[in-house]
Design a protein that fits this description.
alpha/beta, glycerate kinase, domain 1, Rossmann fold, 2 domains, 6-stranded parallel sheet, 6-stranded mixed sheet, 17 helices, 20% strand, globular
Length: 439
């Protein structure tokens, strides 16, 4: 999919190089396209199923079944269905968004994200029941993408959905990293940390994964439903202590974590392949930027930390870099520690807002943040655009940067400037990308 027509902001659209910039951003999003990623790795040649370099005889299988979970699940499932044809006997798709395609015999379930809801609970139990009916002649194709941790859940012990919702909200608000949040999720859930692989045994299994986690550790992507859990209950408790959340944690969760009985699962061995990631998208953007005449390089795809702090650091780097024209690409996922419940923004918008004063007066620079799933925090924006003129434009409108930062209201700030990036949902998620341009 080409995203150029969906990438707009007042500042970007008026820039002399807006076409080149949009082609660079679009290249990054295109590289994470779920359908293209699946079709590149999954092939069928008559009665042979080919996944990367592995070949499976369909004559030796009773059928292929599909389990797709995550924001990209409908698109990934649609592509796999087209490839598998009559070899596909059925399956379940769980996502945040409806499918744009006819999924045929696949059952689609919509569920809650980023906080699990009753639909997430129902989806988790439905998938576990479905997998329990499989046998050694069945083949399970797992399609896993960002958002899977919240979209399906099956809590352990006496933990309720309300308990999971509570701890998820507090972790998200505390500034905890996604890998830390997923450590808690794996400890508290029967589908995570290898739970789906265990339920699917003894069927043959392959997992195709689009990563939404920094550096793509398999156990952290959708909380690792098809891979072993490397962390223990003690690790989960340590995270609650780190963020001073013990008093906010439901008693059932604390009881489960302190029981000294780790939620260990016998995980069946299956092949696991990363088919989309932040690194892959960053490399596509870098290659396109070089083609467009920029000297382009990837600074890192492991960016983490408080959004405002990282925005300050990147603004200084952009302002002091003397090379022209240049495109510095940064990937990762920052956090925002909220201090009020009415905040309207997200980590990408807040990072952009943190650069406004630092870049004030800088000539021929542009700072763009972009959430690859198309929405940032509780908003319909994916990020924002900042230049050396943004501070002056905001001042003329009576917009105070620090006031909006303290209130975490970056959305309202950039909306007034018409400089929000709003490409709409992309149907995928490979973390965030930041683009530092100097012309």
């Amino acid at each position: 999919m080409n995203y150029i027509s969906r990438l707009h902001s007042k500042t970007l659209d008026s820039h002399p190089q807006h076409r080149a910039i949009k082609r660079i951003l679009s290249a990054a999003l295109e590289a994470a396209d779920p359908k293209s990623a699946v079709r590149a790795i999954l092939k069928r040649d008559e009665n042979m199923l080919i996944i990367n370099e592995n070949i499976y005889s369909l004559d030796e299988l009773s059928g292929v079944y599909l389990i797709a979970i995550g924001k990209a699940a409908p698109a990934m499932a649609s592509a796999a269905r087209d490839v598998l044809g009559n070899a596909l006997k059925g399956g379940i798709v769980v996502s945040k968004y409806p499918s744009k395609d006819d999924l045929g015999k696949l059952n689609l379930h919509l569920a809650g994200h980023p906080v699990p809801d009753e639909r997430s609970l129902a989806a988790g139990e439905t998938i576990l029941d479905f997998l329990s009916q499989r046998n050694e002649r069945d083949f399970i194709l797992f399609l896993i993408s960002g958002g899977g941790s919240a979209l399906i859940t099956a809590p352990v012990a006496d933990i309720t959905l309300a308990d999971l919702q509570s701890i998820t909200f507090h972790l998200l608000s505390s500034g905890a990293r996604i890998d830390e949040i997923n450590t808690l999720r794996r400890a508290l859930d029967r589908v995570k940390g290898g739970g789906l692989a265990q339920a699917a045994h003894p069927a043959k299994q392959v997992s195709l994964i689009i990563s939404d986690v920094v550096d793509s550790p398999l156990e952290a992507i959708a909380s690792g439903p098809t891979v072993p859990n490397p962390t223990k209950n003690a690790d989960a408790l340590a995270i609650l202590v780190k963020y001073d959340l013990l008093n906010e944690t439901p008693s059932a969760i604390l009881a489960a974590l302190k029981a000294n009985q780790d939620n260990e699962k016998e995980v069946a061995k299956g092949k696991t392949l990363i088919i989309g990631s932040n690194r892959i998208s960053a490399e596509a953007a870098r290659d396109k930027a070089n083609q467009e005449g920029f000297k382009a390089y990837i600074l890192t795809t492991s960016l983490q930390g408080e959004a405002t702090n990282k925005g300050d650091e990147l603004a200084i780097r952009l302002r002091t870099d003397k090379e022209r024209p240049i495109c510095i690409i940064v990937g990762g996922e920052t956090t925002v520690t909220l201090n009020k419940a009415t905040a309207l923004g997200g980590r990408n918008q807040e990072m952009a807002l943190a650069t406004v004063e630092a870049l004030s007066g800088a000539e021929n620079v542009m700072f763009i943040t972009l959430a690859t799933d198309g929405d940032d925090g509780p908003t319909d924006a994916a990020g924002a655009v900042v230049t050396g003129e943004t501070f002056e434009r905001a001042s003329l409108l009576g917009l105070d940067v620090q006031t909006h930062l303290r209130a975490h209201n970056a959305y309202l700030f950039f909306s007034a400037l018409d400089d929000l990036m709003m490409p709409g949902p992309t149907g995928t998620n490979v973390n965030d990308l930041i683009f530092l341009f100097a012309f």
